[in-house]
Design brief:
- Strand 6, helix 6 and strand 7 form a beta-alpha-beta unit.
- The chain is globular.
- The chain has a 13-stranded mixed β-sheet with strand order 1-13-12-11-2-3-4-5-6-7-10-9-8.
- It has a single domain, classed as Aldolase class I (TIM Barrel), CATH 3.20.20.70.
- By secondary structure, it is α/β, with parallel strands linked by helices.
- The chain contains twelve helices and 13 strands.
- It binds S-adenosylmethionine and iron/sulfur cluster (2 copies).
- S-adenosylmethionine binds next to strand 4, strand 6 and helix 12.
């Protein structure tokens, strides 16, 4: 049997080596981009591997046994990640989210959590430190993560119906174990817990109400994410996107909801509370309602490339600086220069046709989500 071909152009490696300015960034200077957006939130992908094969993220036809994941020595070490994180925190980052791939597959992740939990902002405050996980290993790891200083977790769960969920994760993984992971996280105090459900019309939209009913009345905040055209391998089509407005209408018809104001600027989710006081839900409308105007997030790939937008096709190779003879001040200067040139606002400019064209016309055009994290 012929071997499956691997895309010739591997955009994981498309990156520029950052310029290091002669003039270092003043200590504590905040970073502002060309649209006046300050960098606040850093998402760090700790592995590009995953034990699930969700079709919207790592479809099995592409991420099969021939797929070349990153070799171990190309990954940033925990020391390198912490060094970069410290530099970002010195210049305005207040929130760090560990992600992947599946972050709990990274060996000894709690050691990294402990190192990041020790960082302080210039005025001495701890960071908002969180992690997004498919929860397959969470029941086992929740206590160690909590002990290391993790504050809270976001769990991805796309259905309560076991058959639907097993099909969507394409690894035959049962719902019950994810629910056990959530329960363990609650028990050890990794809250408030958020649960993310990616909604695909025709695949799991009939699970919206069962999911809402299940988490209503619990401290868990369920958030519905519009299926996005990230990467280049999920075969995204606009007709599979169920607009958040429709999610809202379906839940509202059964349990009336009232709008809440955002808790933080740049928040991705629109918040709604059940009118009877039984908790809240979130709607992340990345396709139908762009939130680029206050997007304050940067993403660091598993091998140390900085991406300024989820839809970017080029990173900035910070690992080259970490492994070169550069000081923290010089690296901070380079990061400042990169962020000051940022003009990204993909979701505001997206048109359905252009997005479908981009995902249809070949692999490797845009960076994949499992590589830079969600
Ligand atoms: N493996 C972990 C998990 O699933 O929680 C962390 C990484 S995953 C890439 C981060 C988040 O991205 C998940 O909540 C996932 O559902 C979401 N995601 C992945 N592909 C997506 C897509 N095409 N559209 C919307 N959300 C997506
Ligand atoms: Fe893995 Fe998360 Fe992507 Fe699913 S969404 S394939 S769990 S990285
Ligand atoms: Fe931020 Fe890019 Fe998403 Fe817009 S499309 S919200 S700039 S990550």
């Amino acid at each position: 049997m012929a071997e499956k071909s691997i895309p010739l152009v591997d955009h994981r490696y498309a990156a520029s080596t950052p310029l290091v300015p002669a003039e270092p960034l003043p200590a504590g200077a905040l970073l502002s981009d060309r649209r006046g957006r300050e960098l606040h939130d850093l998402r760090i992908s700790v592995t590009d591997r995953c034990n699930f094969r969700c079709a919207y993220c790592m479809p099995r036809e592409v991420f099969d046994k021939n797929y070349r994941f990153l070799p171990h020595d190309s990954l940033l070490s925990f020391e390198e990640i912490t060094r970069l994180a410290r530099i970002f925190v010195d210049h305005g980052v207040r929130k760090i989210r560990l992600t992947g791939g599946e972050p709990l597959l990274r060996k000894n992740l709690e050691v990294l959590v402990g190192m990041l939990a020790g960082l302080r902002t210039p005025d001495g405050a701890p960071l908002d430190l969180t992690l997004t996980t498919n929860a397959s290993l969470l029941a086992r790891k929740a206590q160690a993560l909590k002990d290391a200083g993790l504050q809270r977790v976001t769990v991805s769960l796309d259905a309560l119906d076991d058959a639907v969920f097993r099909r969507m994760n394409d690894a035959d993984f049962p719902v019950a174990e994810v629910l056990e992971g959530i329960a363990a996280a609650e028990r050890v105090g990794l809250g408030p817990i958020k649960v993310n459900m990616v909604v695909k019309r025709g695949t799991n939209d009939h699970e919206i109400l069962p999911m809402a009913r299940h988490f209503r009345g619990s401290p868990v905040v369920l958030r519905f994410i519009e299926y996005m055209d990230v990467g280049a391998s999920n075969g995204w089509r606009m007709d599979e996107v169920l607009p958040s407005a429709e999610v809202l209408a379906r839940i509202h018809a059964e349990h009336p909801l009232v709008a809440l104001s955002p808790s933080q600027p740049g928040e991705t989710a629109e918040r709604w509370a059940y009118a009877d006081g039984s908790g809240e839900i979130g709607l992340i409308s990345s396709v139908t309602q762009a939130f680029c105007s206050d997007c304050n997030r940067a993403r660091l790939s598993t091998e140390g490339k900085l991406f300024l937008c989820l839809f970017a096709n080029r990173g900035h190779d910070l690992r080259a600086l970490l492994r070169g003879a550069y000081s923290d001040r010089q690296i901070a200067g380079a990061v400042g220069l990169i962020w000051s040139g940022r003009d990204d606002r993909y979701s505001e400019l997206r048109t359905a046709e252009a997005a479908a064209e981009r995902t249809a016309d070949g692999a490797g055009k845009r960076v994949e989500m499992h590589y830079i994290g969600g």
